[in-house]
């Protein structure tokens, strides 16, 4: 037989063997996959159940922003979320989930070097320490050992007044953490945004945009069209749901503030401009009111008759006023009875020497 015929026969036999054992091989692969899936399914099933609970409680909870993925495993997640949203409640730090130990993170690699504050530099301690180190470098080995065995004190002496000024007159301002704020690694590197408040534009941002207080920001027209941001639905922004600043005007001209939101069209009718003739108008009104009062008084006096006038004035006559009767106070007569009562109250004075030991009492 030729070599070609032998090869074809071998291939046919090999294919037959593979077809017979294909089902066995496939079943083994499927079983191995199923075992892996079963192990993975235990975690996946738990995650799916927790995810379903999370999606269920998210719209029901009173404070949905404070709902975490782990809060769903609690017995009553609604009550837990209510406690989280109470005033002056300190949240649990988020690093409790981390497997790594606390402060075992390399976040402070790019930390800046410590700079000695100015109030300590003014005392002159830094220069004194440098001079002492220079002396130690020039010392011999025996002298260094001698100093270690018998050290000398009082090398760095600073005046009392300088130290007092350093810590009391010019102290270094230390920024403490606020209530509810916990320490975390890298907190010193973070930017401080305490002064930034939503709805207010800082001076740096106004300089970058090239606007003043009277000019509108570029995003005001989108807010007028689409409404306020959902996370700040109660905020008041000038030009959207609040009055525009003095000196500016509504409209779509280059310096205009557009048109307010629906329901706030009354803001366009309010004008803060003061008319030039306001003081003249007020003076004219006051003169008219005074003239009207004088005319009304004269009309009333003319209408009164002489008899009514006499009756009205008779009430103010001095004869009709009755003076209050004052009773005469009689002088107090000193009698024997009064003297006897005063003498009864007085106790006889007894000297300390005449008292016996039994009569004396210890006073604490």
Automatic annotation (TrEMBL):
GO CC, one annotated term: nucleus
UniProt-annotated stretches for the region Disordered: 292-328, 340-364
Ranges for domain PSP proline-rich: 190-246
The organism's place on the tree of life at top rank: Eukaryota
SMART domains, per the entry: PSP
PANTHER family: SPLICING FACTOR 3B, SPLICING FACTOR 3B SUBUNIT 2
Protein's name in the database: DUF382 domain-containing putative splicing factor
Organism of this sequence: Hamiltosporidium tvaerminnensis
């Amino acid at each position: 037989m030729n070599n070609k015929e032998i090869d074809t026969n071998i291939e046919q036999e090999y294919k037959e063997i593979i077809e017979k054992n294909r089902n066995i091989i496939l079943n083994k692969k499927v079983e191995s996959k199923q075992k892996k899936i079963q192990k993975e399914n235990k975690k996946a099933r738990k995650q799916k159940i927790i995810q379903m609970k999370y999606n269920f409680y998210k719209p029901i909870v009173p404070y949905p922003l404070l709902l975490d993925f782990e809060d769903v495993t609690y017995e009553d997640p609604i009550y837990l979320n209510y406690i989280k949203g109470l005033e002056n409640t300190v949240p649990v730090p988020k690093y409790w989930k981390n497997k790594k130990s606390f402060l075992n993170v390399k976040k402070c690699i790019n930390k800046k070097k410590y700079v000695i504050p100015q109030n300590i530099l003014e005392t002159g301690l830094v220069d004194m320490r440098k001079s002492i180190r220079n002396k130690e470098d020039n010392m011999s080995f025996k002298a260094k050992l001698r100093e270690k065995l018998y050290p000398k004190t009082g090398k760095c002496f600073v005046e009392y007044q300088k130290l007092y000024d350093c810590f009391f007159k010019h102290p270094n301002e230390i920024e403490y953490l606020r209530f509810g704020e916990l320490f975390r690694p890298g907190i010193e590197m973070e930017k401080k945004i305490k002064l930034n408040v939503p709805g207010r534009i800082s001076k740096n941002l106004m300089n970058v945009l090239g606007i003043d207080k009277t000019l509108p920001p570029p995003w005001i027209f989108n807010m007028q069209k689409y409404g306020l941001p959902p996370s700040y639905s109660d905020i008041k922004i000038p030009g959207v749901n609040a009055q525009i600043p003095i000196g500016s005007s509504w409209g779509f001209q280059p310096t205009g503030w557009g048109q307010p939101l629906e329901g706030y069209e009354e803001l366009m009718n309010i004008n803060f401009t003061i008319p030039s003739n306001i003081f003249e108008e007020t003076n004219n009104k006051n003169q008219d009111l005074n003239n009207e009062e004088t005319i009304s008084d004269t009309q009333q006096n003319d209408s009164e008759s002489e008899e009514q006038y006499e009756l009205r004035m008779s009430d103010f006559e001095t004869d009709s006023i009755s003076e209050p009767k004052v009773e005469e106070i009689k002088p107090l007569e000193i009698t024997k009875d009064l003297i006897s009562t005063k003498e009864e109250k007085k106790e006889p004075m007894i000297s300390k020497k005449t008292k016996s030991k039994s009569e004396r009492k210890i006073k604490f």
